[in-house]
Design goal:
This protein has 324 residues and is of the alpha+beta class. It folds into two domains: 190 residues, no CATH class; 101 residues, no CATH class. The chain contains eight helices and 15 strands. Strand 6 and strand 7 form a beta hairpin.
C-alpha cells in the first residue's frame, strides 16, 4: 500500500464521490463500481476540487485532492449554540471524494486510493475505489455500501481487501502486507470519523482527525470557510503548510516550532498542545498567490450554493476573497 494512504485524512476522512448511478440495490447487496477513465471522471460528473485554507497533511511522496458536488437545492445552514459556530448540510444528490495520488521521484502522478460518500433520497452511501493495476492512470474499481449497514460494510471490506492484496502497487511499491490489510480494515469504518457536527479538537490527545465536521460529517467544506485549522504534530506526515509564507503557526501558549527530518516536516508545541495554522488570505490575494486563488475559488463555489443564512454567517470569509 502506498504511503499516501497513511494521511490522517485517508480513510479517517472519507470525504467526497460521485458514483451516484450505482448504489446498494433494494435487496441490500453492495455493488461494484468501475471507473474506466479516472482522469475525466470528476470533472465530467460535476465535481469541483476544494482547497481548504490550511492544506491537509500527507505522507511524503503523496498528494490529496478533495472533490465535492452539491446537489440541487443547495447547502443548508444551521447554528450550533453549544459550539458557537455555523454548520452546513449537503442536500440529496451531493457527493464527495478524497482522491489520493502517489508521486514518484520523476514527478509521475497516479491515483492509488479513493474514499468517498454520496447522498440520495434514501440515505447515505460510502465507497472506496482502488486501481486495478500498477500502471499510471489505471482504471479504478471499488464497492459502495449503505451507511450504518454492518453487513454491507463487512462484505465491502472483504472484497476491497482482496483487491488491494491482488493488485500491484504503483511505481513498483511492495504489495499490501498483513499489517496494511489490518490497518485498511480498521480505517474502513467511515462512520466513526464522519460524525455530523464534530467539534474541532482542543488538544493533541483527542482522536484524529482534529478538524471540525459539518452537518453531513464532512471535514473540508468547513475548512474552506475558515482561515485556520489544526496542523499535523506527528512525524508520520509531511505538512505542506510548512513553507507557505502566508501561513503562520501557533500553539495554545506561544509560537509553534517547525521540526523535520529527511523530507518530513511537522509542527510541534513545547507545551504539548495542538498547533494551529492560520492563512493570511488578504496578503495572499494581494501577492497573487496561486493557492490562495484556489481557496477563493472554492469559497465562490460554496457561496453560489449557500442559503441566505450561510452567506451572512460566513460573510467575512467571502469578503476577504472579494465575494458578495
Amino acid at each position: 500500500m502506498s504511503r499516501s494512504g497513511r494521511s490522517w485524512l485517508a480513510g479517517a476522512a472519507m470525504l467526497l464521490s460521485g458514483a451516484a448511478a450505482l448504489a446498494a440495490d433494494e435487496t441490500g447487496q453492495i455493488r461494484r463500481i468501475d471507473i474506466a477513465d479516472p482522469g475525466r471522471y470528476w470533472p465530467d460528473n460535476g465535481f469541483v476540487a476544494l482547497s481548504p485554507a490550511i492544506r491537509v497533511s500527507v505522507s511524503p511522496g503523496a498528494e490529496t485532492v478533495i472533490y465535492l458536488k452539491v446537489g440541487a437545492g443547495g447547502l443548508v445552514t444551521r447554528y450550533l449554540p453549544d459550539q458557537r459556530r455555523y454548520s452546513l448540510t449537503v442536500p440529496p444528490g451531493s457527493a464527495a471524494d478524497r482522491v489520493s495520488f502517489a508521486i514518484d521521484r520523476a514527478g509521475h502522478r497516479t491515483i492509488d486510493d479513493v474514499r468517498g460518500t454520496r447522498w440520495d433520497d434514501t440515505g447515505e452511501y460510502f465507497h472506496v475505489y482502488r486501481p486495478v493495476s500498477g500502471a499510471i492512470g489505471a482504471a479504478l474499481a471499488g464497492y459502495e455500501w449503505r451507511r450504518g449497514d454492518a453487513d454491507q460494510q463487512r462484505a465491502a471490506t472483504a472484497l476491497l481487501t482482496g483487491l488491494i492484496t491482488s493488485t500491484p502497487a504503483p511505481f513498483g511499491e511492495r504489495p499490501a502486507d498483513a499489517e496494511d490489510v489490518e490497518r485498511f480494515r480498521a480505517l474502513n469504518r467511515c462512520q466513526l470519523c464522519h460524525v455530523a457536527d464534530k467539534p474541532q479538537a482542543r488538544s493533541a490527545d483527542e482522536a484524529l482527525p482534529p478538524w471540525a465536521t459539518d452537518g453531513s460529517g464532512l471535514y473540508v467544506p468547513p475548512a474552506v470557510l475558515a482561515d485556520e485549522a489544526p496542523l499535523s504534530d506527528t512525524d508520520d506526515f509531511d505538512d505542506p503548510n510548512a513553507f507557505d509564507r502566508f501561513v503562520a503557526a501557533r500553539c495554545p501558549r506561544g509560537t509553534a516550532t517547525l521540526l523535520g527530518r529527511s523530507g518530513d516536516h511537522w509542527y510541534g508545541c513545547a507545551d504539548g498542545g495542538l498547533p494551529v495554522g492560520r492563512r493570511d488570505v488578504a496578503a495572499g490575494r494581494a501577492a497573487g498567490d496561486s493557492y490562495t486563488a484556489q481557496l477563493c475559488a472554492s469559497r465562490r463555489y460554496l457561496y453560489d450554493r449557500l442559503d441566505a443564512l450561510g452567506r451572512r454567517a460566513f460573510a467575512a470569509a467571502f469578503f476577504t476573497c472579494g465575494i458578495g
